[in-house]
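The instructor's notes for this session suggest beginning with a concrete chain rather than abstract definitions. Hand out the sequence below and ask the class to guess, before any prediction is shown, which regions might be ordered.
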Amino acid sequence: MNITLGLDLGQQRDYSALVVTERVHRFVPGPTAEGSFNARRGDEAWEDAYMVRHTQRWRLGTPYTAVIDDVAELMRRPDLDSSLLVFDRTDVGGAVADLVDKVWREGRMWRGERPYGSAGCTPRGITFTAGFAAHGAAEGYLFDETAHKGDVIRRMTMLLSGARLTLPPGLPNGPQLEKELRAYTIKQHKKTGNEYTEAKRESDHDDMVIALALSVWIKNFYGPEPRYIDAQTSELREKPEGTRVYTAAT
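After discussion, reveal the predicted structure:
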């Protein structure tokens, strides 16, 4: 499976939260598209979609060391092999990022031998900057270290509105995630006219929203070939061995 973990590390009054998503492929009907697996680069008959596989929220005040240990243990599960961790390092400082890197280098975030293409699987710490990029960023890139927070949220919103990001029923912490999504909004500054993102009220938490957005911001190209959604049964299936499907950039 092609898995990315989004981790929002909370401060004293905020929760730490984790959302795990699987990138899959789905067929997009078109006048000449047949849903075959012999797609060439630039062929948009297939597109990326994302399914939330796991959510987790720690108690207030949980030390970062405990959170990272829990994440490392989760990443050693067989079904999360070659997964990519993307975390928000904006307010936690370099020491926490160094701790994540240390746990990775000790081999506590993978099973068995060092994963293939392991440089790409190295955890990615993202520092948020305010607002949106001048021309809009559709998605992040593997070695980005900064991102406009508005772009990250907008990508998640785009995927949700296009039914390309799904939350299965019965998901642990699913109701909390849905509550945060309803409470999140894009606002416009009265004086400058600039757009920015935040929860509607100060009392609303957004930790799970940020974790979800991080999990779909950067594609994990170093995992196995994504599974695909069977157009007739809606079931997830493995592609034939040796198949490589290319999708549009977004």
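Then share the key points. The mean pLDDT is 81. The domain at 3-237 is CATH 3.30.420 (Nucleotidyltransferase; domain 5).
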